[in-house]
Amino acid sequence: MKLTDISPAIALSPLDGRYHRQTAELTEYMSEPALNRERLHVEVEWMILLANGMGDGPIVGGVTPFTDAEIAYLRAIPEDFGAEGIARMAEHEAVTHHDVKAVEYYIDDQLDKAPETLGPDTQLPHIKQLVHFACTSEDINNLSYALCIKQAVENVWTPAAESIVDHLADKAERFRDKPMLSLTHGQPATPTTLGKELAVYVYRLRRQMRKIAAQEYLGKINGATGTFGAHLAAYPDVDWVAVSREFVTNRMGLTWNPLTTQIESHDWQAELYSTISHVNRILHNLCVDVWMYISRGVFAQVPVKGATGSSTMPHKVNPIRFENAEANFEISCSLLETLAATLVESRWQRDLTDSTTQRNVGVGLGYSLLALNNLLGGLNSIHPNDAVIERELDENWEVLGEPIQTAMRAAALEGREGMDKPYEKVKELMRGHSISKDDVENFIATLDFDEETAKRLSSLTPSTYTGIADRLVDFD
């Protein structure tokens, strides 16, 4: 049997197949029907503005202001757009081979049906020329995409990303005092605290999340090449710039772009996708770090009852959530960065490359959302392995070479004898050797430190040599 013969159709993308449950929320905003619903919304609101004006009567002639009932009927067109509407829209597009024209004809259908709800006196069946008035398809599309993307980012992606940041912030606070061995270049280095290391990620992420929260979503409605040519040809006395600004800003809730070609220039999209991709890469870094902490034993995983870690090695608990998150962040970045690079270019006043490209915005967000879900699940399944953390610290007394040689430098500056070449003396003692607590204390005793400094250095251990790491958590 051919899989293509099975109904309903089998999903090609894993986002709509294997991972559908984890990414389904985006369907509400980033699917083709969601885009068509927003197109209907934009078209209907444009009709209402043209007929009812901005407080001083209709903008165009030949119509009377819509009644409250007529406005409610028009707004119900996108609100009630469901399975039946999707099928009818598809029928129109099969004939038009043009998605926005299909939207226009769909609205015409609903205007014809208006008397069934509003009675025979309604004007709606007779004002079809108001649908898509003076608009090019991109007037509708750019606003619809902006609304879809804005809602998807604000209602789905941002809450998922913030849940990661909140989780990390909670762990940073909880483990602010838990010392751990640092590794720089993969080698034992100045100890830190687990809380401070997690707070580093919180700080990095919150900077990017603030950019996303402040992101502008631009829109335009100004005709075929952005000149309001058709608008003025029909109604030369109307202040179309003011009408356009009112519609985009107050009716659509977007930022008005006054200067465009046929298309809105998509710079805001490039900015947004670059920032989300940056968040992805920070979190990819976190996944790699946590994976290595697990491999090192610093983090222990909580086994999931009934789950298989390896098909042949029963003892294993593989860090698969972090690995899956890594992979999906990479896919998301590749898509979003391609979108950011390509959408800002258009040949002269318009080419169609952005049309097919923008249909993949939801895919880029979908892989990021999938990665966020995997990462949060992974973070919920790990906890610090105190025994390993303490053993690592106790086995690496050589990390105290740094404070000792730095204190020797300070003593030399103050004129104390025997403090020359501090770095070299400490290196000779500690590099390539296994150092114990006694070795450190004996070395300090051979040096002419003042009593207070000698006492302070002798009291240091790898576990206490963490500087102000615990206080730095407050800067996250």
TrEMBL record:
GO biological process: 'de novo' AMP biosynthetic process; 'de novo' IMP biosynthetic process
Any coiled-coil regions, as ranges: none
Lineage top rank: taxon: Bacteria
CDD domains: PurB
Pathway assigned in UniProt: Purine metabolism; AMP biosynthesis via de novo pathway; AMP from IMP: step 2/2; Purine metabolism; IMP biosynthesis via de novo pathway; 5-amino-1-(5-phospho-D-ribosyl)imidazole-4-carboxamide from 5-amino-1-(5-phospho-D-ribosyl)imidazole-4-carboxylate: step 2/2
Residue ranges occupied by any Fumarate lyase N-terminal domain in the UniProt entry: 17-325
Record flagged with keyword Ribosomal protein: no
Protein name: Adenylosuccinate lyase
Species the sequence originates in: Bifidobacterium catulorum
